[in-house]
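pinned: reference chain
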Amino acid sequence: MNNRNLWAPWRRAYLEDLLHQASLNDDAPAESASFLSTYWAQPEHDEAHHVIHRNDVGMIMLNRYPYANGHLLVALGDARPTLLDYDADQRAAMWSLVDLATALVTIALSPQGVNVGINQGHAAGAGVPSHLHAHVVPRWEADTNFITVVGRVRVVPDALESMASTMRSALPTALARVKGV
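pinned: its C-alpha cells
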C-alpha cells in the first residue's frame, strides 16, 4: 500500500493553543487571537518571534510548528481573512514577500523543491482564519523517512533559533536575487 499521508502530530499543540486562545477571547474581536497581528505589532521582539524579515507592509517568519525544516510564513501586517479582501497593491506586496521567502529558502537550504500555499478559511485548513498568510515550505526527496512511518512524527533537524540564524544570514543574498541584482 502506498501511503502518502503527512503526519504532523506536533501541530496538535498548536491547534489546542488556538482553541484555548479563542476561548479566552470569546468577547474580543477575532483578530486579538492572531499571533500574526501580535508579532506585527511588536517589531522589537522579531528575534524572539523568529521574524526573519519585515518591511512596511508585511513580514516573513519561521513557522513554530513546521511541516519541514525551514518552513516560513508570510503575512501582511493588515489582518484580513481572504486574499480578495486585500486591494491589488496589497496582494502584489504579499506576493513580493512570497517571492522573497521562496528565494530565502532556496538560498539558505538548497531544497530540491518548494511548496507555496495559502489555506483560506477554516474549512481549507487555516489555523488563523482571521489573518491570511502564505506558507513557503522547502522540500527534499528524503524529507520523510522510517520515523515518519513508524513513529508518525516528522523529524525537524534544526532548532528554530539555529534555522533563524541560517535564514538571516541568507537574507541579503535573497533580497539581491529578487531585486535582480
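why pinned: Residues 88-109 form the longest helix (22 residues). Helices lie at 11-24, 35-41, 88-109, 146-150, 160-178.
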